[in-house]
UniProtKB/TrEMBL annotation:
Superkingdom assignment: Eukaryota
Family matches, as InterPro entries: PGBD
Protein name: PiggyBac transposable element-derived protein domain-containing protein
Domain PiggyBac transposable element-derived protein: 5-112
Keyword Transmembrane: yes
Spans traversing the lipid bilayer: 95-114
Native source organism of the sequence: Synaphobranchus kaupii (Kaup's arrowtooth eel)
Keywords from the UniProt entry: Membrane, Transmembrane, Transmembrane helix
One Pfam family from the record: DDE_Tnp_1_7
Length: 210
């Protein structure tokens, strides 16, 4: 399919029961199916830029397989999109760090989705994804506007998630750099146990490195 193909262009080929479809949306979409027809006259609304440079809404053709995918699998794509908007992952990281930060991303997105569901149940307006993350960061670092001096002088009674993450990465880095594995008994000193919140953090470490 040419790169300058119009939005809604559909091309397909079939061999036996296998159907292969190409559809031009904002980018080229490819689908395989064994039980769909290639096209049944369905349309979808898309914003298209006209020759004058303004955007207008119009109906464009859409293959049956793509329409069904959007209908039944939209939640999966939504989750993937939310993970990419404000991801904390960065390139050129060690694999275990990338895995850890991915789990944090998933946890934050799941928390945001739960927040939206609870807001709908209570008939309240939910926070935006960005504001939810900002508020989460403030709570994790125990930040209170106008109380910075008091917060700085007050003793920390419970660990934040960021501290747990930092200590987890330190432990994994240590294990990866040693020729012999470092046991939990060697690494978990009384100071680290107290700093990280005691048995809760120890349980997290044990689950993380199993």
């Amino acid at each position: 399919m040419p790169r300058n193909a119009e939005r809604g262009t559909v091309k397909w080929i079939r061999q036996g029961q296998m159907l292969y479809v190409k559809w031009m949306d904002t980018r080229e979409v490819k689908m395989c199916s064994t039980f769909h027809m290639a096209f049944q006259g369905d349309t979808t609304v898309r914003n298209v830029r006209n020759t004058e440079g303004t955007w207008t809404s119009c109906c464009v053709p859409i293959p049956v397989s793509v329409r069904e995918y959007n209908k039944f699998m939209g939640g999966v794509d939504l989750s993937d999109a939310l993970l990419k908007y404000y991801s904390i992952r960065r390139k050129k990281m060690k694999w275990y760090k990338a895995l850890l930060f991915h789990f944090i991303d998933v946890a934050v997105v799941n928390g945001f989705l739960l927040h939206k569901e609870l807001a709908a149940q209570k008939q309240r307006r939910p926070l935006t994804h960005k504001r939810f993350r900002e508020l989460l960061v403030e709570q994790l670092v125990d930040f209170h506007p106008g109380r910075a001096s008091a917060a700085a002088s007050a003793p920390v009674s419970s660990p934040g998630l960021l501290l747990v993450v930092v200590l987890w990465v330190q432990l994994v880095d240590l294990v990866a750099s040693q020729s012999l594995s470092v046991t939990l008994a060697q690494w978990i000193t009384p100071a680290r146990r107290q700093q990280a919140g005691g048995d809760v953090f120890i349980a997290l470490l044990m689950v993380s490195i199993i």
